């Protein structure tokens, strides 16, 4: 697993910026400007707490196979949740497409470099 895992966050962040500029352009909208702001905050907070607790209390962090699956499911859960909220609350925007493309790029990164 080594050094490729820390680069996952970097790859996902850079991919999100680039894909967002290509697909949405300067007409970006945010969920925080809609009624879904509290749902997004609480949902991502709960996902983050569950992720942190599972890493520290339930998972064997020294087992590479377990951590590979953890990062795979964590990425799917967070970006899937984000894209669902964007689809639900930003109907006239294509922001959810950006999240889905970044999710696929993240999954490809995990499958190539971590698995």
From TrEMBL:
Q: Which UniProt keywords are present, listed alphabetically? A: Membrane, Transmembrane, Transmembrane helix
Query: From what superkingdom does this record's organism come?
Result: Bacteria
Protein name listed in UniProt: DUF4181 domain-containing protein
One Pfam family linked to the record: DUF4181
InterPro entries given in the database record: DUF4181 (IPR025441)
Q: Which organism is it from?
A: Gracilibacillus orientalis
Determine if Cell membrane is one of this entry's keywords: no
| Bilayer-spanning residue ranges | 6-24, 44-63, 69-85, 97-114
